[in-house]
Specification:
- The complex is a heterodimer of chains A (93) and B (420).
- With 93 residues, chain A is mostly helical.
- Chain A has one domain: Non-ribosomal Peptide Synthetase Peptidyl Carrier Protein, Chain A.
- Chain A has three helices and no strands.
- The longest helix of chain A is centred in the middle third of the chain and has 15 residues.
- The two termini of chain A are 24 Å apart.
- By secondary structure, chain B is α/β, with parallel strands linked by helices.
- Chain B has two domains: 249 residues, Peroxisomal Thiolase, Chain A, domain 1 (3-Layer(aba) Sandwich), CATH 3.40.47.10; 150 residues, Peroxisomal Thiolase, Chain A, domain 1.
- Chain B contains 13 helices and 13 strands.
- In chain B, the strands form two sheets. Chain B has a ten-stranded mixed β-sheet, with helices on both faces.
- The relative contact order of chain B is 0.18.
- The chains are: A mainly alpha (93), B alpha/beta (420).
Chain lengths: 93, 420
């Protein structure tokens, strides 16, 4: 589910071709985002799950699925092992 | 590039207006001449706390003109982008043969990204209240609320690589941006500059701050739209407006090469400080700014055929400004049409100077002078020809003046004449 949320956001916000996500071994770098784009992508998830990613720079060198797994693990660690329902928050600054 | 040794003549070839009176230059000016007012009771998020608040807002339909990538920008930046787009199309800037490094963007804005700033603090407190992590915030919050966001957006959208300056001088901001753009082109530091004023601060926290200053107009029960009444005995202050105005300034040489339509030539710019009071105006300071503009233009006071006043409808402001006009223009003050269009579009703060010079240029081009709306009982202490209530058509205007007198005591006077 987390993977889908990120995929949808990246396609909509950055006009990334959806077929990119079918590539085996897809890396975060393959998405073609600059450093600000990566941070914007992370914010989308942070905003929904109310957590803050530590050191987002390390994601740039990971595979996409590694990044998703790492994010999920971070969220679960802060929520007693659970992946909560994403909050829909008003008024993103 | 070094400055040219001869001064350039500077002309205005494009105007864009996104105002509470209309989403385009022609709609805004048409409603202005028609005496329409965009002043209304403020939105519910404001009137919840300030039941008598009034505002002049831009039609929400403006957002339909924005690209998806522009949706997240601060509201004032969005206004500035759209007004600039209209001005550049009007100027046929696509036909420019200029080096991009010699095209700049000068903006005037009072509070910067006020809408983004307010959303940021509101969210922070809501997060804390809800027991969530307040540090999770949109990464672009800073670049969106920075006061230079408009010049950044415009320069990137159109690939203008010349100087990008932002002037923040309260009510004089965009008048100063125009004056400085004029000086930069005149003295060879740029060939063309988009001078834009923008403001969007019609949000609750900001309104509470303005309310505390006790300068906001009290609503007239019979007709809230008529609540801002410059020079009238019953005036009670101003109404905050939002919007943007953009003017394309370039060398006359460039305009002529392109066969562009010229609205007028900027020929005088005066800038002075009162050094007296944080909010109350000083006639002496205003006088010096106006004289400075006149002397630079070489036009005698009697050569000014329309004056768009600062005219905020405050008790003190209108009297001081009228005295200044008498001092400068002497007997000509009996014949000089002076109107304050804030009665209809509100006080646009950072966008005021640009909006009002744009209106002055449109008046000169069309021969139609906008009225001071709702002037039913002129204050005898402000005795001038205020063009009361009705626009005047068929006028032959050779030169116009627009004045902006800001909190902090910064006075700016601009003069434009017919290009010949």
């Amino acid at each position: 589910m987390l993977r889908q949320i990120i995929k949808d956001f990246v396609i909509q916000q950055f006009n990334v071709d959806p077929s990119v996500f079918d590539q085996p071994g897809l890396t975060v770098a393959d998405l073609g985002l600059d450093s600000l784009g990566v941070v914007e992508m992370l914010f989308e998830v942070e905003d929904l799950y109310g957590f803050q990613v530590e050191d987002p720079a390390r994601y740039s060198s990971m595979r996409f699925d590694e990044m998703v797994a790492d994010m999920e693990a971070t969220i679960r660690a802060a929520n007693n092992g659970q992946l909560p329902e994403p909050a829909s928050l008003q008024g993103k600054a | 590039m070094s400055a040219a040794s001869t001064v350039q003549r500077v002309v205005v070839t494009g105007i864009g207006l996104l105002s509470p009176l209309g989403l385009t230059r022609s709609a805004s000016f048409e409603h202005l001449l028609g005496g329409d007012s965009a002043i209304r009771p403020a939105g519910p998020e404001i009137t919840r706390w300030l039941p008598h608040a009034l505002s002049a807002d831009v039609d929400p339909a403006f957002a339909q003109q924005l690209d998806r990538s522009e949706q997240g920008l601060d509201r004032a930046t969005q206004f500035a982008l759209l007004a600039s787009r209209e001005a550049l199309a009007d100027a046929r800037a696509a036909d420019w043969d200029l080096d991009r490094g010699r095209i700049g963007v000068f903006a005037g804005i009072g509070l910067g990204g006020a809408t983004t700033g307010e959303a940021l603090y509101t969210r922070m407190h809501e997060q804390v209240q809800a027991g969530r992590n307040p540090t999770v915030m949109h990464p672009l919050s800073v670049p969106r609320l920075m006061p230079n966001a408009a010049t950044a957006a415009i320069s990137m959208a159109h690939q203008f690589r010349g100087p990008t300056h932002t002037y923040s001088v309260a009510c004089s901001s965009s008048a100063m941006a125009i004056g400085e753009a004029y000086r930069s082109i005149r003295h060879g530091y740029a060939d063309a500059i988009v001078a834009v004023g923008a403001e969007a601060m019609n949000v609750p926290g900001v309104f509470m701050a303005w309310n505390a200053l006790r300068v906001m107009a009290k609503p007239r029960p019979d007709n809230p739209a008529a609540s801002c009444r410059p020079f009238d005995k019953d005036r009670s202050g101003f109404v905050l407006g939002e919007g943007a105005a953009a003017l394309v300034l370039e060398t006359a040489a460039s305009a002529l090469r392109r066969g562009a339509t010229i609205y007028g030539e900027i020929c005088g710019y005066g800038s002075s400080s009162d050094a007296q009071h944080l909010t109350l105006p000083s006639s002496e300071g205003q006088y010096r700014a106006i004289r400075m503009a006149l002397e630079e233009s070489g036009i005698a006071p009697a050569g000014i055929h329309y004056l768009n006043a600062h005219g905020t409808a405050t008790e003190a402001g209108d009297v001081v400004e009228s005295e200044t006009i008498r001092q400068v223009f002497g007997d000509h003050a009996d014949r000089l049409p002076v109107s304050s269009t804030k009665s209809q579009h509100g006080h646009l703060i950072g966008a005021a100077g640009a909006t009002e010079l744009a209106i002055s240029l449109l008046a000169m081009q069309s021969g139609s002078i906008p009225p001071t709306a709702f002037l039913d009982s002129p204050d005898p202490r402000c005795a001038l020809d205020h063009v009361p209530r009705q626009a005047r058509h068929g006028q032959s205007l050779q030169a116009v003046m627009s004045n902006s007198f800001a909190f902090g005591g910064s006075n700016v006077s601009l003069i434009a004449r017919r290009y010949a």
